[in-house]
Amino acid sequence: MTCAVLSIGTELTRGELVNSNAAWLSSELTALGFEVVEHAVIDDDFTRIGEALLRLSVRARVVVATGGLGPTTDDLTARAVAGALGMPLVRDQATLEHIRRRFERAQRTMSASNEKQADFPEGADILPNPIGTAPGFGVKVGDCAGYFMPGVPREMKRMFEDQVAPRIRALAPDTSFQSRLLTFGLPESVIGEKLAGIEEFYPGVTLGYRAHFPEIEVKVLARSTSRATARTLCDRATMEVRSRLGGCIYGEAEETFAGVIGRALRARGWTLAIAESCTGGLVGEMLTAEPGASDFLLLDAVTYANSAKSRVLGVDEETIRWHGAVSPEVAEAMARGAKRIAAADVALALTGIAGPGGGSEIKPVGTVYMALTRPDGTTDVQHRVFSGDREQIRTLASYAGLQMVRELCASRIGERTAETSGVERS
Predict the structure, then answer these.
(1) 20 to 30 A from 88, CA-CA: which of 100, 146, 345, 363?
(2) pTM, two decimal places
(3) Which tens digit of pLDDT belongs to each residue from 315-348?
């Protein structure tokens, strides 16, 4: 069963916005069992919107579209769809009243331009929008079902999950199953090499890859004669993928790297303190973006200046003077200081050179020292040289530091895991 995604908006064709909606929809449609055969992107043009819909409706059984449902003059989707189908636009009074009440609750006055958001092709299936003013709608285009949703990602996702997915689920062949594995630590090329031959060994399985810096997502899609047999096939292939990639797999599906670390700390019953320099608070931001971080996070000290390292964390000024702020000695002292002042079980510290300036032949841009003080008071220090621009280096350092925490949580207390072998230890 084929499906196409139509994205409408001049801001997309001009490159002013990244089309994240299409990627999200394709993933959801694939999970439902559809085969997504095309992404089309059209500007806000009456004729071209209609032509794109008619063309896609010949090729796909379902077309899902986003964008062009707002109140401004360039929001033409409803009128263009009606024109392509040869139907008049009809104003739905219940929808108009819903929009008006939404403005009243926000203590705002609805303008006349918002009234057009209640206009739909005659006979359309109206899709309510509980979190916005732009409802969606569904129409039949020959043998194809077309569904049109707002372009605002939050509104689109809610509408797809609540309104569209239940309507199209029965159209999808229930003969596929997909798993999604999330990885950090290996480049996409290396992951591809490690997984070579799996598709030949497991007929019916297709591997897909999605790079989202600095992570790589591996998708294992299995198709068979039924969903049950597809799931069995997917499970077997997924086990093989896990065996080949090992510890670089940190989670599945919608999990986040920071969320996995937070769960691991809770499972251990450990608290965490952080001391950041080159990452400038990014580690703490990643952790606190996840609900429940207060369960384990006691401190995130951004000690950017050398004076702050000494005054806040108690790093000896002589240590900084003799070894430099970017050194294993200072990283260790920062971690020990953070653990002490926060009375935490575990402490992570990062100091480095994020660039673009500040590097030298001995310590080039990208040099980072990460220290992790354990519950027993011992400290591991890792030295890495990351490549990329300033933001990439900060991101890689933050991930690598949290990876040290993850590995400690997975190991026996006081022992290093295989992944951290070769690391300096005090």
Answers:
(1) 100
(2) 0.80
(3) 999 999 999 999 999 999 999 999 999 999 999 9
